[in-house]
Amino acid sequence: MERLEFTVQPEEAGQRLDKLAAARFPQMTRSRLQQLMAEGLVQCSGIPAGKNTKPRAGDTVSIRVPQAQPAEIVPQPIPLDIIYEDDCLLIVNKPKGMVVHPAPGNPDGTLVNALMAHCGGQLSGINGQLRPGIVHRIDKDTSGLLVVAKDNEAHLALSAQFAVHSITRVYHTVVYGGFSGQDGAVEGLIGRHPVDRKRMAVVQKNGKYAYTAYHVEQRYQGFTHLSVRLRTGRTHQIRVHLASIGHPVAGDAVYGPKQVIARLQGQCLHAKTLGFLHPRTGRYVEFDSPLPEYFTAFTKQLQQI
Prior knowledge:
This protein is of the alpha+beta class. The protein has three domains: 2-65, Roll (Structural Genomics Hypothetical 15.5 Kd Protein In mrcA-pckA Intergenic Region, Chain A); 70-163, Pseudouridine synthase, CATH 3.30.2350.10; 168-273 and 285-303, Pseudouridine synthase. Helices cover 19% and strands 30% of the residues. Helix 1 crosses helix 2 (30-38).
């Protein structure tokens, strides 16, 4: 059982505990914290806390996080493209079309099912029984690199780096339209779309700050190959930001034009480079994956136009 503790500072007093704890520990979602509260695993100065608890300055908040229970997920011997592995983490190159963790509509066949089989249940439990080992996610139809934590210590160390945006993350994508310059950036708040709550959007308020830098790798007729570096990691950030400046990702059925490029079977977006401080050694490590076949086949077709 992992224990997380902190002392409430004067500027934090009066906030709802689930919101306050989620800000302190970004690896924990508010829904996960509320679940732990319902199970009596969160205390505020020794008293069981609920989601509406509003601690005072000086209160000590204690959160007990159970280890993941493998029995909840069926291990499945699904092939994995593992770039690197040691005793506390692994780097996996996720293919397009694979869901990261079980959810309604995707109960199995996910990356987590494959990890459970590969790691024999040795995965961190910070994110609960359905997301063991998952430090961060990429969309189902986005391919590329993910770091997976095998224990809670590694998970917390990696999550802390994600929280301060010190992780190196470079994506490659093909987008609609042309660019006059070689480099640029998009910044602004990203939040839920005001009408369609299943989508994200650039908003004027009630969103989270996001910054996306891009570099032109190759120009084609009507399309551009970009490398994109993230300073923040918001939901659908690259897809939303590039669509907001008139350059949606090719193949994106959510943020792109209605006439989708069906042969791409989803957005043309690949998480190519991932770098961070190793949680055991403290040394910076960086990993790179080649552009997948769907990506290179599409750019070859564009070269012929």
